[in-house]
Write a structure and sequence with these properties.
Helix 6 (150-161) packs across helix 7. A 4-stranded mixed β-sheet has the order 1-6-5-4. The chain has a two-stranded antiparallel ribbon with strand order 2-3. Helices cover 46% and strands 14% of the residues. It has 7 helices and 6 strands. It has 226 residues and is of the alpha+beta class. Strand 4 (167-174) and strand 5 (178-185) form a beta hairpin.
């Protein structure tokens, strides 16, 4: 957004009539909130598509590998023991008898099948999704990829929002597609504070260097009276 767009234009204000001035002042003091959602219409064009960072899934992969290794090792030990002339383990004989005598529509069989199916769906989901939702990809520079934590981006934008005159407190939440800011203004007109926050946070988002520019939602209100 250029400086010509963000510059406040002069306005011509008419003096209120004497019989309505007191009523207008009372209405302004009772106003506690201003603005709900704001989506910038003039976002900068994207400079190439940068994919998200993929998680290595160390913990799920390690758990599955250990369970598979333990089951395969136990079964192999039992098979070798039977080939050596010993009897099979009790758990394998019991499992074979249960599988031979239990019908397919038995509740235990159906419950076990559901658990195995859910486990398979969970593993497939982990395999085809990138994960690492807390890391925002940044624009590539000289072939190097970089990422920015969402918490760090929220902290940077919060510090910039606190520099706006009239802002008493502000909370900033950075998502993958939108940045939401909720501020409390101690003085100044709420619309003026919101306009300054729109400009300040919009510039801050662009300066983060993200590969995908998120939208912006600003909400400004007065502190509750005690």
């Amino acid at each position: 957004m250029s400086d010509e767009r963000t510059q406040r234009l002069p306005t011509l204000e008419k003096e209120p009539a004497p019989h309505t001035a007191r009523e207008a002042t009372a209405a302004d003091l009772e106003q506690t909130t201003s603005a709900a959602g704001y989506g910038p219409a003039d976002r900068p064009e994207q400079t190439g598509r940068t994919g998200r960072f993929w998680s290595v899934r160390r913990l799920p992969a390690g758990i599955v590998a250990l369970l598979a290794l333990a089951a395969a090792g136990l079964l192999l030990y039992d098979l070798v023991s039977v080939r050596a002339g010993n009897s099979a383990m009790a758990w394998r004989r019991t499992l074979a008898d249960e599988m031979a005598t239990t019908p397919v529509d038995d509740p235990k069989v159906l419950a076990s099948a559901c658990v195995v199916a859910l486990l398979g769906v969970w593993l497939i989901t982990l395999a085809v999704t990138p994960g690492r939702r807390g890391l925002l990809p940044m624009r590539e520079t000289a072939g190097a990829r970089a990422g920015l934590e969402r918490t760090a981006a929220a902290l940077v934008l919060r510090d910039r929002a606190m520099q706006v005159s009239g802002v008493q407190s502000v909370r900033v939440a950075v998502g993958r597609r939108k940045v939401r800011a909720r501020a409390r203004a101690g003085f100044r007109d709420l619309h003026d504070v919101r306009g300054d926050l729109d400009s300040t946070l919009g510039d801050g988002i662009r300066q983060l260097g993200l590969a995908r520019q998120p939208g912006l939602s600003v909400h400004v209100e007065r502190p509750k009276r005690r």
